[in-house]
Design goal:
By secondary structure, the chain is of the alpha+beta class. It folds into 3 domains: 117 residues, Trna Endonuclease, Chain: A, domain 1; 75 residues, Winged helix-like DNA-binding domain superfamily/Winged helix DNA-binding domain (Arc Repressor Mutant, subunit A, Orthogonal Bundle), CATH 1.10.10.10; 110 residues, no CATH class. It starts with a helix and ends with a helix.
């Protein structure tokens, strides 16, 4: 029995209090691409039979739309509703699948089976005190820089330090965090230390995602008093520039804390108590947004991280499209 099936049985036993048996199901009616991607089993939960489609090891995490099409095709072919069983599912994708009504189980984390059982709490194993759950801002920025701007594979830490404008001491810390998270290893090449990432492109993004968080630390409402620099467009303002979604009433800009303080001191803007008196919204970021951006908006991956917990279905749809459009 695969590790995913074992995790599922243990998890459902805890959630339902029942002993669960998995019975292989004849799936010859399914299209070939679904037979290659999933193994289908029947199980009984609370007296009802459900079909569970286990995603075979090695597949990249799909989008909510893809899983929706897969479950609908399996339902039509097998004559019963099917829930996908996935090894991992980012929270923004989980929210979207719940909104779309797509049954799914992530053993040990979440289960969404409408009419049977729903458990959408976040479950995480007990943290190892020697291992960070989240990457620090510099480490997160390094991963995103590698994915979006310039590949850092096979480049010495000294050269990476120059590209990212981080000190050698900071890069050593970044290296330690990425190694502890299983995202990279460093090897010695002559007198230099070289970074080797554990995956490439979207596979690395999916591997890193559980360790990444929103770069937004705080938000402020301001009135602009001078047509000076405002920073990169962020939030809904950035999303509206990259997709078909409508911008909010007030533009949103991303700045570091030091840059924001500089704007205040130079009189470019003044703070407001609420949105009613403001002409803009400022997001204070944990790393410089311009380091990853190559346009007037913030980079797409940081934008996704900043908005992935939005409850707005339209936002989730557009974030999904952004991921599809990235040329990994």
């Amino acid at each position: 029995m695969t590790a995913l099936k074992q995790r599922l049985l243990a998890y459902l036993g805890t959630v339902t209090g029942e002993h669960i048996d998995l019975v292989p199901t004849q799936a010859s009616a399914l299209p070939l691409f679904l037979r290659e991607r999933y193994e289908v089993y029947a199980a009984r939960l609370f007296g009802r039979e459900v079909l569970l489609a286990f995603e075979v090891e090695g597949w990249e995490t799909g989008t909510p739309s893809e899983y929706g099409k897969h479950t609908e095709t399996m339902r039509k072919s097998l004559g019963k509703a099917v829930a996908v069983v996935l090894p991992i599912l980012p929270s923004y994708a989980r929210n979207r699948m719940v909104q779309m009504g797509i049954p799914f189980i992530v053993p040990g984390n979440q289960v969404f089976l409408p009419g049977s059982v729903i458990d959408l709490r976040e479950h995480f194993p007990q943290a190892n005190p020697k291992k960070r759950e989240w990457l620090g801002p510099a480490a997160q920025c390094t991963v995103l820089f590698h994915l979006l701007r310039t590949p850092l594979q096979g480049i010495s830490l000294k050269d990476i330090s120059g590209k990212l404008e981080y000190s050698t001491m900071m890069l050593t810390k970044v290296k330690d965090e990425l190694e502890a998270s299983g995202l990279c290893k460093t090897v010695r090449n002559g007198r230099s230390l070289i970074m080797e990432f554990a995956a490439h492109g979207r596979s690395l993004w999916e591997l890193a995602l559980p360790h990444l968080r929103s770069p937004v630390k705080k938000t402020h409402w301001v009135q602009w008093r001078h047509p000076g620099p405002k920073g990169r467009l962020a939030g809904m303002s950035a999303l509206s520039r990259q997709t078909a979604i409508t911008d909010d009433r007030l533009p949103t800009y991303a700045l570091t804390h030091s840059a924001f303080q500089g704007h205040l001191k130079q009189g470019y803007c003044v703070g407001c108590q609420d949105a009613e008196d403001a002409t803009a919204k400022i997001e204070l970021w944990s790393y410089p947004p311009e380091r990853l951006a190559n346009s007037e908006t913030v980079d797409p991956l940081s934008l996704l991280l900043s908005l992935r917990n939005s409850a707005d279905e339209r936002v989730q749809q557009q974030l999904e499209q952004i991921i599809q459009d990235i040329k990994w």
